[in-house]
Amino acid sequence: MSLNVLPLEVLEAVLDQLAESVLITDSAGRILYVNEAFEQLTGYRREEVLGKNPKLLKSGYHTKEFYRQFWQQILAGIPYRGYFVNRRKDGSLYTEEKIVTPVRNSSGEVAYLVATSRDVTEEMAFRAKLEHLATYDPLTQLLNRRAFIEKVEGELISVNEGRALAYIDLDRFKMVNDLLGHQVGDSILAELGRRLQAALPQAIVGRMGGDEFAAWYPAAAESEAKAKGKLLLDAINMEIHVQGQPVHLEGSMGVALFPDHGATLSELLRRADLAMYRAKLFRLPEPEVFTPDLEGLTPKALSYEAALHRALAAGDAQLVFQSLLDLKEETLTHAEALFRIPSPEGLINPLVHLDLSRRSVNEALDRFVINQARSLQGKYPQLTLWLNITPWSLSDPAFLALLYQEVERGLQTDRVILEISEQLVQPQLSRIAPALWRLRNLGIRLALDDFGAGQISLTYLKSLPINFLKISREFFWAHRGSNGTPAPVLRHIVEMAHELGLSVVLEGVETKEDLNLARALNVDLVQGYFVHTPDTSPRVGLNQGGQPV
């Protein structure tokens, strides 16, 4: 026996003991040889396949075009490496990584094909599972934030027609978790994922985190973007039954248009998010499309907002007091509660730097103020508290429920006056009017603050349940005149307010002359540094000789 030639039986023994499946065919595709690993992989015995075509393993998974390219490459004498999904004798599918090598004869023609393969079914399933976990949110089965961004950015490279990016935030979902538990909350989110994808099948929908979602879909115009976005909102607003109990969700949506509002996804996301904030703050039932005026949110405002939330979370936020002097009774029995947070410079008012229309600001702020009221009444039993409330909370059922709850727990409504700023309330007055009447019926008095800074007419106030009119400091200073004679406009406002049954408060009283002017105007109460500088405690008592207590 030549040392350079192995006997055929040795070669066959080697092939049979290989861990990889081996299949050899002639150029016509007739099976000439299979090893034991092939038998174990496919379930076919050797005698069942010899002389037959490998197509008996076909699963139907691959297309005709796949096989056409495969044979074109093989018959050209080029080895093929790739993955096949085939069918075993028992009908089950398996995935194999296969190398098919063309073997030429002495004439240079492809005479044989040698295919070696290994079973990668479990490996591919594990890989697919990892890819799924890396791509999809496990709770909602929507794309996760990273995958959503990657997919949309991939589309942006070649898209040449209008698109819309919708950003959605669930309203008061934290309350659902707090009241019903996180397990119920998770069930709701899972159902929500199914509904969002079904509502707009052509959209790319992703969960951006927590209770926030995004959708990317074709939209040739703003009207189409809003109409399709409304389908998503309607899917959210439908009642969901979880563990036998109905849950009604609401969402707020902001929409940015491509290319009108940005050429990159980061621009579109930021602007859709801004529009969503506006939709949430104004409780809009429709998608809100971005407009340039939303660009006013500054890093400085955001830093103060972060400081506000840190102070609230740490229990460092507090109320300071500025007492009001009742000129009819000559008493200090009223005090406005002013919000403050600590800083390296001492207690500061962060609100002058913040956009109070942002729900992330006003919701936390107003809840803090109301939560303090009852304990303050217990601490200062002779005091009537003036509490600043943003108008957005007055249209929030959850906030009103909190207020009713505090009344049930002992909050004395006759010793609470809620202040709302004229400038802030003006655009929303008709919307929040029903809430104002409900508060009035509850026994809570209302004050319109900073009058003169906006454009609300006194005659319009006749239709609202307002008890007090607070003339703003700036308006007073601009019209206080000289030589102790106030400008006619001030006297006219006070007289008209009294005719309407309103008590008048004059802000900005900072000198003895200002106080004398207030008396001449016949206002009911005054407020300012001459009366009382804001302090951690209110001043309560009788006025002494026209001087502050």
UniProtKB/TrEMBL annotation:
Pfam families named in the record: EAL, GGDEF, PAS
Which part of the chain is the PAS domain?
7-53
Residue runs in coiled coils: none
Q: Which SUPFAM superfamilies match?
A: EAL domain-like (SSF141868), Nucleotide cyclase (SSF55073), PYP-like sensor domain (PAS domain) (SSF55785)
Name any Gene Ontology BP term: regulation of DNA-templated transcription
- Domain of life, per UniProt, equals Bacteria
Q: Which residues form the PAC domain?
A: 78-132
> Start and end of every EAL domain?
301-548
The chain positions of domain GGDEF read 161-292
Under what name is this protein listed? GGDEF domain-containing protein
Which organism is this entry from? Answer: Thermus scotoductus
Its taxonomic placement starts with:
Bacteria, Thermotogati, Deinococcota, Deinococci, Thermales
